[in-house]
Amino acid sequence: MSENQPAPARRPAVAITVSDRSSDGRREDESGRLLVAALQDQGYAVTSTIVPDGVESVAEALREAVAGGARLIVSTGGTGMGPRDLTPEGTRQVITRENPGMAEHLRREGTRHTPFAAVSRGVVGVVDWPAEQGTGGTLVINLPGRPAAVTEGMDIIGPLLPHVLSQIVGGDHS
């Protein structure tokens, strides 16, 4: 690329940390920091936010990210079995189409690192855009909140993202 050519636009992505303790300042958001770094390494222009656990807080953060033009949203936290782990429920309120294959892939490959990957209830799906916004949608991925799970999860799904994001906007199946 010559000096006079503009750099290619970076794809917009949002990283959402779902954690009561991080949202109120009791714990540093290491998982969110790792998620932002992993997305940036893959060429995304990333914004991030921290929200408390809960169905409505997650759903609202997802809606705001979609309205802001994100093509990809990856959350970390709230996918376990605890009483406040409600990220999947909040996500299901917003997505229009679920992709269980990608969620299963994350769990299956995650068990190569820890058997606790099977406990994650994270979902993956698409928020289809309204017709006036054009063809396409936003991919939403729930990762567990453990820092290692974020790094491992991004390594697992990272290679799939260009193809999936192309498919969402009508790309060919090649």
Could you characterize the architecture of this molecule?
Helices cover 37% and strands 20% of the residues. It is an alpha/beta fold and 174 residues long. The chain has a single domain, classed as Molybdenum Cofactor Biosythetic Enzyme, Chain A, CATH 3.40.980. The protein has a six-stranded mixed β-sheet with strand order 2-1-3-6-5-4, with helices on both faces. Helix 2 runs parallel beside helix 6 (147-157) and helix 5 (100-110) crosses helix 6 (147-157). The longest helix has 13 residues, at 55-67. The protein is globular and about 40 Å long. The model is unreliable at 1-8 (pLDDT under 50).
In brief, what are we looking at here?
With 174 residues, the chain is of the alpha/beta class. It contains 7 helices and 6 strands, in the order E-H-H-E-H-E-H-E-H-E-E-H-H.
By CATH, the topology is: Molybdenum Cofactor Biosythetic Enzyme, Chain A
SSE sequence, one letter per element: EHHEHEHEHEEHH
- Main sheet makeup: 6 strands, mixed
What structural category characterises the helix and strand content? alpha/beta
Q: Rg, please?
A: 16 Å
> How far is the first residue's CA from the last residue's CA?
27 Å
What spatial order of strands do you see in the largest sheet? 2-1-3-6-5-4
Can you tell me the residue ranges where pLDDT is under 50 for at least 5 consecutive residues? 1-8
CATH architecture: 3-Layer(aba) Sandwich
User: How many distinct beta strands?
Assistant: 6
Task: Supply the CATH superfamily name.
Answer: MoaB/Mog-like domain
CATH class: Alpha Beta
- How many domains? 1
* Range of helix content: 25-40%
Gross morphology is globular
Strand content: 15-25%
Could you state the oligomeric state of the chains shown? Answer: single chain
Average pLDDT, rounded to a whole number, is 93
Number of helices: 7
